[in-house]
Design goal:
heterodimer, A: about 325 residues, alpha/beta, Rossmann fold, Alpha-Beta Plaits, 2 domains, 6-stranded mixed β-sheet, 4-stranded antiparallel β-sheet, 11 helices, 14 strands, about 30% strand, B: about 270 residues, mainly alpha, 10 helices
Chain lengths: ~325, ~270
């Protein structure tokens, strides 16, 4: 017999979560996040269409797609801000919509645009979060120091980058088991991005799980082991970064002694012609070599394509 | 615990607004207290003016007493016009900033990212707004009584109490309507426009129903129909119909708002 648990039956959220994770069928080695045939419609517009993927415990999972692909809608469904039209989002066995409050006990979120109170200081925000969850003061100080944030300033006076830093601190001080990041480094300078990447790696080594949505493919390549790529709300690839990079896609750079021939009929992606040098990505290099063979070549370089090239090909 | 924390948070954010309403309310009251001796000295002219008014119009504007006492004067001038107008604007702005403006400014995303339920957010905000309304009513009513004593006017505490209760219930009904709208829309200005527009329509219905006998039934659709401070002062009691209508409207609309808020998508 399976008993459906309700938060109201328990004296506190912790008891509810504890009871929920010993429900039949739940094991601690399960995926932290399971998205199962998630669809979200706004009127006649389908933002997310039967999306399914899982994020394993301890993984840093990249969530890629162009603007309007449905990444933020998916994030909102995971956070329980939006109710799925159909399908489910499950976090550690809890439903993201019906058990939304319990899920937040171990989930933190960094939105793409910080949603903070402009008349509060950074420290006011941290203090407020501390009213709902015990926080480690040493960790707060360390994060503020690492990310170089002055907590005494009002949010309204902070730059976009500093507001983003505060959002990151607010998420990390809660020491969550699952961290949702929606374009978290937007507004951060390259040095701070590197610092943030280190923080994430440290967080992961402590057993934390991350779902990161980003346009910065170098960031995804540097951080993630697995990725899901969506386009127009549909999943088009759920794989590892390594396999995506080595999926037979080649980066070809050829410098001709004379005028370069046309490669358009081979439908390469990321085709760039600069003088007599042509750069592009292709899966099958034999037709390319056949074209090159009929011309004088000054230099040729064939390497495995970058994630950016693989991504561009998927979107072509 | 979360509920108390959030209620305190909402009160802390609103306290300056509350204080400014209290000060404005008291300033109006003081102004009317200063004006009353002049009106009293010209009571004959005042009586003639009132007698010249159509009966419906006098009733619509809560003018019922031809020989003014302080309370009858205040019930028609202050408690019949300025005070309810302040209550309407006060509760509308409280409801707008409690939910819709938080969605508009995306700050509700910060709250919802914590282990706080939508139910806690909604009811804590509503409780804070009710406390705000209650303190405004108490401050203005108690000051009326204190002013009257200070100026040596005979005022029944029962009248003050009943006027306060009527204003509180009237405000509670509009607060419910405003929270319902605030839970549905995603912009504070939309709450003000919709509720403000609705109140204006209700007022027009009430005036039309008071002036035209064949439109009298339309008056029942207006919350102003049940708000009659002049009758409270004349009869020394608050109408049971007013209590029931305001309580029902407040309960139904507040719960409808809660139902919508707990199921809606929040785009932050």
């Amino acid at each position: 017999m399976r008993v459906t648990l309700s938060p109201g039956l328990y004296r506190d959220q912790a008891s509810f979560i504890a009871a929920k994770i010993i429900e039949p069928g739940y094991t601690s080695t399960m995926n932290t996040l399971v998205i199962n045939e998630l669809s979200k419609k706004y009127g006649k517009t389908t933002a997310v269409d039967e999306l399914s993927f899982t994020v394993a415990k301890g993984d840093i999972f990249g969530f890629l797609g162009p603007n309007g692909a449905g990444k933020s809608t998916t994030m909102r469904a995971i956070m329980g801000f939006d109710k799925p039209t159909s399908g489910t989002v499950s976090i550690k066995g809890l439903d993201a919509w019906t058990d939304a409050t319990a899920v937040k006990e171990f989930t933190s979120y960094v939105p793409s645009e910080p949603n903070l109170y402009p008349d509060w200081t950074g420290d006011d925000h941290i203090k407020f979060v501390g009213r709902f969850k015990p926080l480690d003061q040493a960790k707060i100080n360390s994060l503020k120091q690492t990310l170089e944030l002055d907590g005494s300033k009002r949010v309204g006076q902070l730059s976009t980058g500093n507001r983003q830093k505060l959002s990151i601190i607010l998420a990390l001080v809660q020491e969550p088991e699952l961290l949702l990041l929606d374009e978290p480094t937007r507004g951060l300078d390259p040095l701070l991005r590197a610092t943030f990447h280190k923080l994430l790696k440290t967080y992961q080594s402590g057993g934390g799980t991350v779902l990161i949505s980003s346009h910065d493919l170098a960031e995804v390549e540097a951080l993630c082991t697995d990725v899901a790529i969506i386009r127009a709300g549909k999943l088009i690839k759920d794989t590892t970064v390594a396999s995506l990079r080595s999926a037979g896609l080649h980066q070809v750079k050829v410098t001709f002694t004379g005028r370069p021939p046309s490669f358009a009929h081979l439908k390469p992606s990321n085709l760039v012609t600069s003088g007599s040098t042509v750069t592009y990505a292709v899966r099958d290099i034999n037709p390319v070599l056949a074209v090159i063979a009929g011309h004088d070549v000054a230099q040729i370089e064939i390497t495995n394509a970058s994630l950016e090239d693989a991504f561009a090909e998927l979107y072509a | 615990m979360n509920f108390i924390t959030l209620t305190r948070h909402a009160i802390k954010r609103s306290r300056r607004l509350w204080l400014s309403y209290d000060v404005i309310g008291l300033a109006f009251l003081w102004l009317y207290m200063q004006t009353f001796p002049i009106v009293q000295s010209q009571s004959t002219n005042y009586a003639q003016i009132i007698k010249a008014l159509p009966k419906g119009l006098a009733s619509a504007f809560n003018i019922t007493d031809v020989a003014p006492t302080l309370m009858s004067f205040l019930s028609s001038k202050h408690f019949g016009l300025i005070w309810p107008l302040m209550i309407i604007i006060f509760v509308m702005s409280q409801a707008a900033s409690a939910i819709a403006r938080e969605i508009e400014q995306r700050t509700i995303g910060f709250l919802l990212s914590q282990a706080i339920s939508r139910s806690t957010i909604y009811w804590s905000r509503w409780t804070a707004a009710v406390i705000g309304l209650l303190q405004f009513v108490l401050v203005t009513e108690l000051t009326t009584w204190l002013f009257a004593r200070a100026y040596n006017y005979a005022v029944s505490f029962g009248d003050v109490w009943h006027l306060g209760l009527l204003g509180f219930l009237f405000g509670l009904a509009i607060l419910g309507l405003s929270f319902m709208v605030s839970a549905v829309v995603s912009s504070g200005s939309k709450v003000n426009a919709i509720v403000g527009g609705g109140m204006l329509v209700m007022y027009v219905l009430f005036i039309a129903a008071s002036l035209e006998n064949n439109l009298s039934k339309l008056g029942y659709l207006s919350l102003f129909k049940y708000y009659s401070p002049g009758d409270v002062v004349t009869s020394g009691a608050i109408s049971l119909q007013s209590v029931w209508v305001y309580t029902l409207v407040a309960t139904i609309t507040t719960y409808l708002g809660y139902g919508w808020f707990s199921r809606r998508d929040i785009d932050v």
